[in-house]
Amino acid sequence: MNIRQVLKNIRLKFNMVGSGRRKNKLNSIDFSIISNNCFAGIVYQHFNLQYNTPTVGLYFYPDEYIKFCKKFDYYIGQKLTFRPCPYIFVLVFCSEKQLISLFAIQHI
Fold first, then answer.
1. Average pLDDT over the chain, rounded to whole?
2. Is the distance from CB of 40 to CB of 53 less than 8 angstroms?
3. pLDDT tens column, 35-49
């Protein structure tokens, strides 16, 4: 285990210690965060909450994120098509009429 992994483990353990107090200060724990990057996951981890977001693990380009939010109900109901990409991401498209490029991180 390298130093980065050790520091990450320490940070995660300290986060777990304080997450109960932080969670108690929330008015509700039943919420979704629609984010264009990993921000939502960080918030859920900070409060030790179950991920409750349709965009978990995804990255949107800013203009496509705005398009996604403007027609959220439309896009959330579309079937996703996964297309392999030679890098550490998988390119994902929504709907054939109005494409939105998403990047889903592959955890190896």
1. 76
2. yes
3. 988 888 888 888 888
Quote the CA–CA distance of 88 and 25 in Å, as a whole number.
37
CA 14 to chain CA centroid, nearest Å? 22
DSSP letter at 68? H
CA 69 to chain centroid, in Å, comes to 15
**Tokens 């940070």 -> residue:** 11
Contact 33, 53 (CB under 8 A): yes
| Alpha-helix runs per DSSP H in the chain | 3-24, 39-46, 62-70, 72-76
The predicted-structure confidence for 91-102, as pLDDT tens digits, reads as follows 565 655 565 666
On whether the CB atoms of residues 65 and 51 are closer than 8 A, the answer is: no
Closest CA to 32 of 63, 72, 81: 72
Which DSSP string corresponds to 14-30? HHHHHHHHHHHT-S-S-
Is pTM, for the whole model, over 0.70? no
